[in-house]
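New to this. Help decode the following:
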Amino acid sequence: MARREFSVTGIVQGVGFRPFVYRIARERNLSGGVLNNGRGVFIHVEGSAEAIDRFGNDLVTKTPPLAHIVSVESEDKEERGESGFIIEKSESSVERSALISPDCDVCPDCLTELFDPSDRRYRYPFTNCANCGPRYSIVLDVPYDRPNTTMADFKLCKKCREEYENPEERRFHAQPVACPECGPTLVFRDERFEPVAGVDSVKAGVTAIADGGIVATKGIGGYHLAVDANNESAVNRLRRRKKRDEKPFALMVSDLATAKTIARIDTFTAGLMESVPHPIVLAEKLDTFSLPGVAPGCGRFGIMLPYTPLHHLILREGGFTALVMTSANLSDDPIVHTEEEARAGLSGIADAYLTHDRAIEHRTDDSVELPMTHGPVIIRRSRGYTPTPILLDKAYPPTLAMGGDLKNTFCVIKDDQAFISQHIGDLSWERSITYLESSLDRFMKLIDAGQPQVVAFDKHPDSAGGRLAKERYGSAVLVPVQHHHAHFVSALVERGALEGESIGIVFDGTGYGDDGAIWGGEFLTGSAEGFVRAGAIDPLPLPGGDRAIKEPWRIAIALIDELYGEDHPLQNAPWVQSIPEETRRAVLRMYHKGINTPLSHGAGRVFDVAAVLMGLCVNAGFEGQPVMALEALVEPEVECGYPVDIEEKGNRMNLSFRPAFRGVIADILAKTPPGVMATRFHNTVVEGAFRMAQQIRGASGLSRLVLSGGCFQNRYLSDTLGSRLTNSGFKVLRHGRVPPNDGGISLGQAIVAARRM
């Protein structure tokens, strides 16, 4: 006979771990108990030594589907003569490091109950169990018990209490457990946000959508705006009201079979859609299916499967092919998540509302993923992933990183774990700054991070994150981190490659350079400790500064003038003629005099110019629109490209695409098909980056290489360049669980600052 104590850390609270321990202990005829504490789960068992050994093996090999074990520590103790095995009351402790599960999709068992007329939870929009449902969005504190969630105000009825206390039930100690008698209530509200009495709320919502209405629907992490995707008039009205003229909308479909009628869904993509996070997955459009207005000028639909009982009810009872399901907000504001925000912020946008009284503590947008050849890549890391940490190579000082001003996330390092927040958004909006501050406070409390010793932020002298860091954490060590170095290091962290030096190809739009210039097409060598700028893309002029990013025709006009002078070959091109002559002349005067015309090395600007020259996107309605339009035309069978120049410029190499732009213009004059030109240009960027990498390897002796930056969300660019480099002997590291765009730089900032300490 023996006694052993186990301490288990990881995502082991709120995922049915204690009931699981209870069952395997009973199966092995062991006595003792299990409880939640501030660190994770504590277990003590007594019985035969052989049974305890088998129990220890079961503990790590038969875990519940939502559990993720980080560590198991065990210690033999003296027997106490215990009898029976119980789940004990949770204990609070000084150490609070228990990990909280992300929010989860509805499980098959709960889904069966949802549509079973004989079940007491039939058509109940808040059914859940230990294997599914809300987690992070409702948690207030650890240990993860009902009193520490927003379900605390809902007193369990007799039947739910019996399920909650019965170890044989899958709702045993499931904290959000509820039913129509004791749980949250769905309410249908009219356009004035007044509750409509005497209606079935689900049916009323379905009818409103079917009639062409915009229905604001409260989900797990916030509100969505839902319309029938087949109703072009409703979709266009949503665009006008939401002030989102061209940016693609996300779709929700009832099942994979429906998704396959809309987009190319292979086995890999299907697995991604059905994974526990149920993200929005970017899938290639089918030519045989059209949803006008949903994703204009884009080659992919963002599609997700329903992940709450309410989603399933609306889709099934409405019989919709697809719903537009977009975050409920104006433009780039944070997603609406309270009734007060919905009433104030969605007035004039929504025609009706489906609300409920389960409070959302942590608002979270839907995550977005893109299938690539090397694996899935997270484009937006939020619901379903936050607050799962990234394990680091060792423990670091308490560190906070504020992230970038676009696609903002923050990152907190606690010991050997890095926690990346949910998507915050664009910090140029005051409401996003407020959201960042409140999220910081909640997040730091939840993981018991305490006051950071080190605070990192973007090196730009006017970054919003930097201002906030100085205001809130002036007593900490403040570390500005160069934008592209942070991109580079974020991939190194994710791939466990912090030791030693690497080459980094970082392609994005804009980042503040160490020389005060606008960087964005960078070839670096180095590590988290520091870097050398080995090369860069030859800069392009931005007449009007930031305005040229939203109106890329300005860059193209200046470039054509540089290459050909006033009498250029595209004078009669439709996109040129669409711009008033006096406006063109004013921009050229600005360019010639060097007034408000900074130079940008950004790779994004290179794609912008190509898209403008081809007449695809004269003005950018949203970030990345020109490159998306260009990528949508790619024809993989086209292999050739345009010429580029590589030359020494000071102490670095310079990659110029000006010869390629001449080639594009020659093809335009020759009436070459747009798909051929778009592919040739992509191939040109691949060729230029590949040749630069080869020269840097020759000079440095390095062969490990990182691809990072928002441009590598372009699947053709990432896959083609990655394959070319790998076949030439490079060890290529790319993003997967951390976004390659600015949503991932907080991780890089945090590690640069922490290692510097």
